[in-house]
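Severity: low
Component: inverse-folding endpoint
Summary: output formatting inconsistent between runs
Steps to reproduce: submit the following structure tokens with default settings.
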């Protein structure tokens, strides 16, 4: 059994980003670029007015008054063959986003002017260059735009749209499958008989994968039988990069995931991590005709599945997508809202509620009754870590935690 950071270090060499594919811009939200992009045009494409007002050219020849030469709206262009130049000492009524004419050297807001008929006078002196968005001040054509590995957020997609970039090269999404195991597990819509439990793992994992825009192939519920489980895994792994398996990873007589994976040629990276909940976590790897494949053997209890997901599975999938994620790398500092018990032999991860006081995160632990306590984790918005051997902490003491709702 190894500590979580050491387990993560064993996993990282198998998390190289997946090969590139081309996607239309609107299908690429949440993905990461596999290749850098460059600007296709200047942004802004020409000098633009930053506000509604008047473009002024040079100095006034009439005690600060400028004759108004006309009006320009956003999208208006100079007529073919016209000079497109504002004469010195003249003004042009101009709207936000309109092209500033040649000859104009500043723009004054309409509310900062005095108008008299077809003449306008600034109420105060206006500096040269005021309220003009200069051509290329954001980015110049051919300049770097987004680097390889950049996350395609909605704002990043808007930037690409401004450049007319319709397709992008991103890292391929991992192809996933989900295998449940256990004679006692029944679908959520079934009425469990005595000794049976409804499947809660699928809803948790599918919802978390939906957040990452990753589909998953369900393989159903395999019974606690080595031959049957091996057959189901073999079929489910075809064409997949990652298999998530729930249950069958402890040391009981009905836990068959490890021997089934060994039959299929997988090598174990680690089996057992010094965390509570989630100790029996198993991760295995193989390379073959379908390429490199990873299996995450998640323990059967709901809290164990969740903690293993947050610490290992989610950051591993983010790495395959080209991100820089790591185990517990998103942890933040905060303060406890209530006392917290001492650390034991393993690092404990406790669900907690989250509030802010004066800009400081306050974490109030929700003590679970065990790794089967779905209620405690269902109410939580954060996960607090208690390091092995740490002393008991009083309310107000510093703590380390991470968001569960990102």
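Observed output (run 2 of 3):
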């Amino acid at each position: 059994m190894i500590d979580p950071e050491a387990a993560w270090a064993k996993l990282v060499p198998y998390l190289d980003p997946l090969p590139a594919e081309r996607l239309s811009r609107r299908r690429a939200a949440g993905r990461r670029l596999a290749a850098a992009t460059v600007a296709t045009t200047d942004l802004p494409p020409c000098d633009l007015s930053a506000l509604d007002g008047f473009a002024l050219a040079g100095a006034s020849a009439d005690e600060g008054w400028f004759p108004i030469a006309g009006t320009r709206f956003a999208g208006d262009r100079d007529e073919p063959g016209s000079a497109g130049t504002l004469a010195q000492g003249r003004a042009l009524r101009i709207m936000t986003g309109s092209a500033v004419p040649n000859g104009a050297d500043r723009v004054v807001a309409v509310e900062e002017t005095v108008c008299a008929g077809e003449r306008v006078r600034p109420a105060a002196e206006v500096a040269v260059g005021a309220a003009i968005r200069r051509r290329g001040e954001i980015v110049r054509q051919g300049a770097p735009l987004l680097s390889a590995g950049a996350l395609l957020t909605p704002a990043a997609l808007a930037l690409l749209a401004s450049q007319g970039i319709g397709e992008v090269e991103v890292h391929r999404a991992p192809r996933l499958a989900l295998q449940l195991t256990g004679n006692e597990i029944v679908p959520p819509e079934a009425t469990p008989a005595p000794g049976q439990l409804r499947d809660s793992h699928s809803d948790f994992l599918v919802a978390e994968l939906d957040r990452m825009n990753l589909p998953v192939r369900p393989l159903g519920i395999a019974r606690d039988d080595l031959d049957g489980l091996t057959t189901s895994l073999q079929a489910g792994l075809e064409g997949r990069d990652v298999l998530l398996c729930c249950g069958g990873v402890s040391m009981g007589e009905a836990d068959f995931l490890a021997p089934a994976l060994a039959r299929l040629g997988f090598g174990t990276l680690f089996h057992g991590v010094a965390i509570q909940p989630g100790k029996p976590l198993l991760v295995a790897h193989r390379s073959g005709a379908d390429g490199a494949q990873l299996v995450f053997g998640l323990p059967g209890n709901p809290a164990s599945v969740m903690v293993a997901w947050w610490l290992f599975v989610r950051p591993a999938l983010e790495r395959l997508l080209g991100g820089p994620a790591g185990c517990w790398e998103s942890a933040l500092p905060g303060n406890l809202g209530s006392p917290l018990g001492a650390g034991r032999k393993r690092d404990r991860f406790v669900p907690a509620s989250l509030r802010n006081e004066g800009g400081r995160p306050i974490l109030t632990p929700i003590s679970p009754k065990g790794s089967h306590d779905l209620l405690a984790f269902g109410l939580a918005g954060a996960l607090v870590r208690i390091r092995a051997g740490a002393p008991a902490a009083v309310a107000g003491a510093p703590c380390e935690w991470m968001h569960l709702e990102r």
